[in-house]
Please model this.
Amino acid sequence: MKNGKPVVLVVEDSPMIRMGAVDLVLSAGYEALEAGDADEAIRILQSRADIDLVFTDVQMPGTMDGIKLSHYIRDRWPPVKLIVASGAAIIEESMLPGGSRFFSKPYDELTITEAMAQLLSHQHPHFPIS
Amino acid sequence: MLQTPPVHLEAASTLAVVVSSIEPLLFLSDDLKVIAASASFCRAFEIDPASVPGMRLSDLGAGEWAMPKLESLLSATASGSANIEAYEIDLKRPGKKTRQLVLNARTLDDGDLEHIRLLLAIADVTDARAEARLKDDLIRDKAILLQEVQHRVANSLQIIASVLMQSARRVQSDEARGHLHNAHHRVMSIAALQQQLSRSLGGTVELRAYFTQLSRSLGASMIADPERLSIKVAVDDSVVDADVSVSLGLIVTELVINALKHAFPDKGIGKIAIDYRSSGGDWTLSVADNGIGMPAGNDAPKAGLGTGIVEALVKNLDGKIELSDAGPGTVVTISHRDTTDLENDLSSAV
Model:
């Protein structure tokens, strides 16, 4: 949270889609941060402790795709909520860390903002912290 | 030097059958000496036919048939303790490519229990296997390529949808915003089809799943209170070609947008029902609402882009539109009667 607003990190390699996603996050009343790939996302996550939710693409250049990134984040920053979107139809929520949400591209913006609101409304993590 | 004559003489007909076998075949004694080899065997494995009779299997050619595993299996077959059925083995010859062989062996059952002899059939499956592998590779490549294309299409549609929504959030005029939202719905309608297609085989679309996804997507972006307004889908098991489904999907999109925008101006509870059924080449699509009904005469609204899209698509599908009072509400019915047979009759008469 930053000044009482949830902070959402958008990870997406396509600049046009990233722009749209950032705009979507801002219009939903959240703070938006952006990264072009998983490595940049991890650098941002390491540099600040106020990120509440990561909204990531799957297929991206770099060392990790969005699925690996989501598992890495769940492992390293367990409280961070996750939403994953991809143009590939073969991905299922079961491939992602528990509690994260998956949407096919093109996603409906209202569906995404509702999922964000729902994930961010959880006061406590829905998974055990080991 | 004189060779010891074979103790047992085979019937000439047996030998002739072996030699003329189309499938490569070896006729062996129980001590694994070659009694006869088919001409096809000698040709396929480059063995001089004259050298064959009486030779040990392990001495054939340059000794490439001396395979301990094969010998052990053949001996076991001769003694009746094993069977060689579709046994796969690699034939390695110096300076030549390894051949993949499938072997079948059995004892010759001619009632002569004194002299056990073996028939060994050798099928060279190297080329067939290579072809099968190539085919598998091609199928896999095609699947990967298709996935890649679908992924790109999804991303492109996402870019278009994102740009439209960003514009919609920025424009000041309600009318312009409405148009941008409608454009967004049309893109999402095509996207829903794309998602159905990516899950289907052979470019056909299951209409029930498609219309259900379509109505969910339209509802998610247009219905603020799902308790108040709902969209119901009733579709039979129809499966249609991709290009027909894209038209049907866009028609449904326009009619649902129209009903959501105009049929329920007050805050009452409203329902929209999408219905599709087909029989043979005939089909009927209807979108009904239980709203305020369509104003007629001078009060009728000016036809917009949506109406134009529906009319053009219905014409293209060779259908007709009917607008009727659902009391309460409006039902738009689009029907198509299959006249293919009739047309064929006419064209053959010309």
